[in-house]
Amino acid sequence: MKPNNCSLETMVLQSNNIGPVGGAAILAAATSCPSLHLIDLSAKSGVNRNHIGSRCGAALQALVTNSTSLRELKLGGNGLGPLICSPLHDALKANHSLRLLDLSGNGIGDDGCGALSAALENGSLETLLLSRNSIGNTGATCLAGALSGHMLLQSLHLDENAISAKGAAALSSALRTNTQMTNLSLAGCPLGQDGGVAFARCLQDNNALQSLSFKKCRLGDRGSDALFAAVAENKSLTSLDMSTCNVSDECSVRLGAMLNSQSCRIRILNLTSNRLGDVAMQAISSSLGSNKSLQILKLRSNAFHDSGAAHLVSAMRNNGSVIQLDVEFNDVNYANYNSLQHSVGENLAKHRKEAIPRFKVEINRLE
Questions:
Q1: Which of 6, 39, 51, 101 suits a disulfide with 1, CB 3.0-4.6 Å?
Q2: How far apart are CA 63 and CA 19, in angstroms?
């Protein structure tokens, strides 16, 4: 890449075992390419990594500091460590073009997270991926401080970190007044029941969040019950993932009330791999006739039988919105399963037919 003559716009070099010397050279060369808007040196799942390491700090700082075109920088799974975050902190404070930064699986820990958090206020980042980084409650508290300030960050991924109830409380407190964040994923973090209760308090005030993932967060019945009650009155949330959260029939009343609420806007609800039985299916079914927003309902691998499925079959005959319903790996016979899929098929056909006029209007508007 010749300085200032480079017309390259995207650079994707995933999983090439590039190493620290090659990584630093690539980042240094990218600095002289004014048209470059995407650099992807991340690792593909199950494939070799690039192993860039922390020695590329100076080159990375120069690139992010000086680039005015770079929009996406993906460095996941490169063993960067916490030391990389100090030069990144300085670079991010100077950069006004970067929109997405992926540092997943780099072991930055609480110290690295703290350095990054201090650079987020008044920055340009809209999406930050920090999954699998050994971030604990201290790092979560640092991020909460940044979320309390003025920032553009809209999507934050903290999956599979060590954030528990204390960190959840800090994040949820900051999000009560945050008006920018729309997507938050904490999948695999040990939030526990108290963490679920903390985020329930957040949803009482927050009107910006649209998507929340608590997959494998050990919320239990108390945390889940609190969340269902809060989501029932929240008018912004459209996607909720509470799969593998140890939710049982004890939450049936709140779950049914949430789906029956006129305020609830949930379109995607994932309750896969919980302990929901026939009582919960009856509660869900009681709301499906009146619910007009729910489109995707995932109930795979729960604990209900044909009696619970029969309630769903009856309810789906009067529901026109659900276009995807997963009930596999439950004790449901073929007749009930087939009837549910038939209702879903009818809804999907109707949904597609109704979408055609809307697409035509939008096409005419754009012409």
A1: 6
A2: 18
Taking 90 as the threshold, does the pLDDT of residue 47 lie above it? no
CA–CA distance, 297 with 276 (Å, rounded to integer): 13
Helix (H), strand (E), coil (C) string for the chain:
CCCCCCCCCEEECCCCCCHHHHHHHHHHHHCCCCCCCEEECCCCCCCCCCCCCHHHHHHHHHHHHHCCCCCEEECCCCCCCHHHHHHHHHHHHHCCCCCEEECCCCCCHHHHHHHHHHHHCCCCCCEEECCCCCCCHHHHHHHHHHHHCCCCCCEEECCCCCCCHHHHHHHHHHHCCCCCCCEEECCCCCCHHHHHHHHHHHHHHCCCCCEEECCCCCCHHHHHHHHHHHHCCCCCCCEEECCCCCCEHHHHHHHHHHHHCCCCCCCEEECCCCECCHHHHHHHHHHHCCCCCCCEEECCCCCCCHHHHHHHHHHHCCCCCCCEEECCCCCCCHHHHHHHHHHHHHHHHHHHHHHHHHHHHHHHHHC
Angle (deg, nearest 10), helices 165-175 and 137-148: 0
CA distance 338 to 316: 12
Whether 5 shows a pLDDT value over 90: the answer reads: no
Instruction: Provide the greatest CA pair distance for the chain.
Output: 70
Task: Retrieve residue 80's tokens.
Answer: 């960067």
Contact 68, 39 (CB under 8 A): no
For residue 1, name the pLDDT band (cuts at 50, 70, 90).
low
Tell me the HSE value of 185 on the side-chain side, using a 13 A CA sphere.
19
**Tens digit of pLDDT for each residue in 91-118?**
999 999 999 999 999 999 999 999 999 9
